[in-house]
Fold this protein.
Amino acid sequence: PNHKKEFQRLKGLGEMDWQELRGTTMDSVTRTLLQVNVEEAAEAENIMSVLMGDDVESRKAFIQKNARDVRNLDF
């Protein structure tokens, strides 16, 4: 059958209305909480600074260096 699916992408919880938050985040019956540990915190912070910062040349160099290692790309 030809089922139409609707997808919505949100950048953060602030973009969700209260009904979406209740069903996905606040309901203890349906939510899943996972603890996230960053073992290489300094390296992760550096990568985030390069990717999200204002230094375009550093970001460009990072992307060129790591482009061949990309396995999943979402755009």
